[in-house]
Amino acid sequence: MRTYESALKDDSASLLIFRMARLLRHGADGFMRDKGIGLTPEQWGLLWKVARQEGCLQTDLADAVLKDHPNVTKMLDALEKRGLVDREPNPNDRRSNEVWLTEAGKALLDKHLPQLVEEKEEFFKGLDRTDLNRLITYLKTIQRNMERVFK
User: Fold this and answer.
1) Residue 3 lies inside a defined structural domain of this protein
2) What CATH code is carried by the domain that includes residue 40?
């Protein structure tokens, strides 16, 4: 008979990852609220993704931010309404849009990104670069495994 004792411990890997994700979400909500940014963490992540890949296709953003296409469309609608992004027809395919960061979007990121990076650095105190690289490797392996299992 198989024992599930290790999976039910309070310090199991899956439970720790779940708790960290909740803490991260709660902290991101608080950061956005305290700074008066007026975005959800998901909208911020989408804005950041657009900044890193200006002119990306709207359809590609759904996979990048782990959201379905209708949700990404709604999030982009909200960002566009606030003047943070622009959508333009793809010159190579009229059925899709390219997404571009506006000057207001750039200004918002420029204003708040350094504070966010500084706060996130606190999360990893006590870990050196080698530790962080190992952690990232482990988390990517777990993510790939989960994507395969839940496919």
Assistant:
1) no
2) 1.10.10.10
